[in-house]
Amino acid sequence: MNAETLLGLEAPVRLVAFMSVLVAMALWELLAPRRALSVGKAWRWVNNAGVVAVDTLLVRLLFPAGAVALGAWVESQGWGLLGWLGLPFWVTVGTAVVVLDGVIWAQHWAFHKVPLLWRLHRMHHADPDIDVTTGLRFHPLEILLSMGIKLAAILALGAPALAVLLFEVLLNATSLFNHGNVRLPSGLDRWLRLVVVTPDMHRVHHSWHRDETDSNFGFNLPWWDRLFGTYRAQPRDGHQGMTIGLHAFRDPRWLRLDRMLLQPLSREAEEGEGHPTPD
Question: How many domains are there within the chain?
């Protein structure tokens, strides 16, 4: 499949994959929820959807060509490390997907460790519940920074268009999956998290205990956390007893779209720049 055909298929492929996983996860949450929600689903969903709308509009305005288009260009130019290595095409595609996932893991780690970046990322963690829509709730400035980092990685790596499309589809799908408020049999979860980040694994990352928030940074592949020593198997308070979110943003007013967008400017969370409760 040539790059021109792939670019034409990008929008429908991403939309179908996104909507399929979103609907499947939403139904799964209704049929087999892992935890009882503390806030009404409708109120959270409306405001979280508003964040998605703002994010999508800004990305389309500021990055009209998109990541897959950049992948098509670097592929045509033979640009980047993978282009210079001259590896077989499918090896190049697989390598690019794995390396891009590692870049996103490192970016996520940095957004927790750099105070200015944390002020943007903490909006994601301020959700007092975790469900499929939490996987879409990222501050617009974080999304723009993430897009810039992703484009730089594609350029340096020489990731071909097919690899970028596969990575984008996987990243969106796994973010929806691992934020899902769904119940998995413990045996299945134990084996599944060897190859993908599961909801129980990622839920630990949304604990309000800081050491747990600073663990399990992966969205797609679980190997990076094991490799770099940031893996935590279970929350200390258990999945039913753990508290989700941030101590400084428990007030329901922070669920409103306008409040979420202005949250990085808030001075209400000076201690630890809005990190979870000190341990």
Answer: 1
Of 9, 5, 3, 15, whose CA–CA distance to 169 is shortest? Answer: 15
Range in 4-13, 125-134, 249-258 the model is least confident about: 4-13
Which residues are CB-neighbours of 4 under 8 A, at least 6 positions away?
72
Q: Classify residue 279: in a domain, yes or no.
A: no
Give the dihedral of Cα atoms 153, 158, 160, 164; nearest 10 deg.
0
Structure-derived torsion over alpha carbons of residues 206, 202, 219, 169, reported in degrees to the nearest 10: -110
Eight-state DSSP code of residue 148: H
Residue 175: inside a domain: yes
Residue type at 245? G
Is the pLDDT assigned to residue 273 strictly greater than 50?
no
CB contact at 8 A, 232 and 216 = yes
At residue 138 the predicted structure's pLDDT band, cuts being 50, 70 and 90, is very high
Encode 79-117: b = buried (16+ Cβ within 10 Å), e = exposed.
bbebbeeeeeeeebbebbbebbbbbbbebbbebbeeeeb
For residue 268, the model assigns a pLDDT of: 60
User: What tokens were used for 138?
Assistant: 């990222």
Closest residue by Cα to residue 72 from 171, 168, 154, 169? 154
What's the rounded mean pLDDT across residues 53-75?
Answer: 89
Residues in CB range of 87: below 8 A, 6 or more apart: 95
Tokens encoding 76: 């045509």
> What is the per-residue pLDDT for 1?
64
Distance (Å, whole) CA 49 – CA 40? 14
Residue 215 clears pLDDT 50, i.e. is over it: yes
The DSSP secondary-structure symbol of 244 reads: B
What is the domain range of residue 31? 3-274
Is the pLDDT at 7 greater than 80? The verdict is no
Whether residue 54 is contained in a domain is answered as yes
Q: Is residue 9 part of a domain?
A: yes
